[in-house]
Amino acid sequence: MSVDALPYRPHNHDACVRDALAEARAICQDHNARLTPVRQRVLELIWESHKPLGAYDLLAVLASEGHNAAPPTVYRALDFLQQHGLVHRIASLNAFTGCTHAGQRHTGMFLICTQCRNVHELASSAVSDAIAQAAKVEGFQPSETTIEVAGLCPRCMASDHE
User: Fold this and answer.
1) What is the pTM for the complete model shown?
2) By C-alpha distance, which of 102, 119, 128, 126 is closest to 35?
């Protein structure tokens, strides 16, 4: 793995991918949803990269592996994965990243490095609660909340100061 593809925090990447796929299979089984080979491969590709991947990035890899996939196939797979809470769409990058809280209803909060494009998903009940409370005060009921924060990751900040 190249240095620019490393996550914010060191971890066992193979276990990370393996656990995400096992969790996806369990979630799909619980919802009687089919995790087809293409859907599973798209999810696997997303988890293998710590950088969000766009639909055409995924399509290029699938084609290089011999899959006869067209853009609608990849978009349908991504829609399925989003609907089941397995991936998040990072709107500012028009790309997708694996959900670290799959199967749990939560506020998607992301730190996005503008230099290396790595993304880190945060979990903060304080932020989620503050948003829910502010919405309640306005008489608004959110159905989905996503927060994207752009900046520099620790690795890029350190390399800028060397």
Assistant:
1) 0.85
2) 102
Contact 107, 146 (CB under 8 A): yes
Q: How far apart are CA 61 and CA 44, in angstroms?
A: 11
pLDDT digits (tens, 9 = 90+) for 78-95: 999 999 999 999 999 999
Which uninterrupted H or E stretch holds 137?
A: helix 125-137
CA pair distance 28, 15, nearest whole angstrom: 20
Answer yes or no: are the C-beta atoms of 146 and 88 closer than 8 Å: yes
Tokens at 68, concatenated: 């006869």
CB atoms within 10 A of CB 8: 15
Give bridge partners of residue 110 from the DSSP assignment.
121, 148
The position carrying tokens 């619980």 is 30
Taking residues 65-86, report their average pLDDT: 92
CA distance 160 to 146: 29
